[in-house]
Amino acid sequence: MKLKGKVFKFGNHIDTDVIIPARYLSLMEAKDLGKHCMEDIDKDFVKKIKAGDIIMAGENFGCGSSREHAPVAIKGCGVALVVAKSFARIFYRNAINVGLPILECAEAVNTTETGDELEIDLQKGVIKNLTNKKTFTTKPFPEFIMQIIKAGGLINLLRKENSLSS
User: Fold this and answer.
1) Is 131 helix (H, G, I), strand (E, B) or coil?
2) Quick one: DSSP state of residue 57?
């Protein structure tokens, strides 16, 4: 599975309250949550993002509360992938469960800027910065996680598997 998009870069310790402010937690649909993604750190973020673009960040992305609204909002605004130096563990699990691919690669973060274009091969764990011509490798997802991502989340995968066994 290959992804290609423009980078929007953020710093360290981007918490779930910044990703989707608590005042929007009553919203239920991904698209509605996505309309408010990152607005407290960049009020124009959702106006600039295009489907398939990439968030890149420093250490501890997704720290704070354990709300799964955060990765849902990221997907809902069209972001295809998050690359960070590290992720809060509960955010990591929530992201995979909702089918949002996330990769850890400090080297890529250190040499990539907002506006750079990346091409990522999730199955090989290869990140190519098409702007500065640098290539990075990271640990690829195991096959069972790739199945969750391809299905659009764990619930979708379970529904698909259940319908096949009926």
Assistant:
1) coil
2) E
Instruction: Tell me the angle at which helices 89-97 and 143-151 cross, rounded to the nearest 10 degrees.
Output: 60
Beta strand segments in 27-121, E? 54-57, 81-84, 102-104, 117-121
CA-wise closest residue to 93 among 25, 16, 26:
16
For 16-26, the pLDDT digits (tens) are: 999 999 999 99
Residue range 2-165 in CATH 3.40.50.720: no
Q: Which two tokens stand for residue 162?
A: 């259940």
- Residue 70 neighbours by CB distance under 10 Å: 28
The one-character DSSP state at 29 is S
User: What order of strands is seen across the sheet that includes strand 126-129?
Assistant: 102-104, 81-84, 54-57, 2-9, 117-121, 126-129, 134-137
81-123 residue pLDDT tens:
999 999 999 999 999 999 999 999 999 999 999 999 999 999 9
DSSP secondary structure code for residue 153 in this structure: S
| Residue 69: C-alpha distances to residues 2, 6, 33, 105 (Å) | 25, 23, 8, 24
* Residue-range domain boundaries for the chain: 2-165
pTM over cut 0.85: yes
Dist. CA 109–CA 134, nearest whole Å = 11
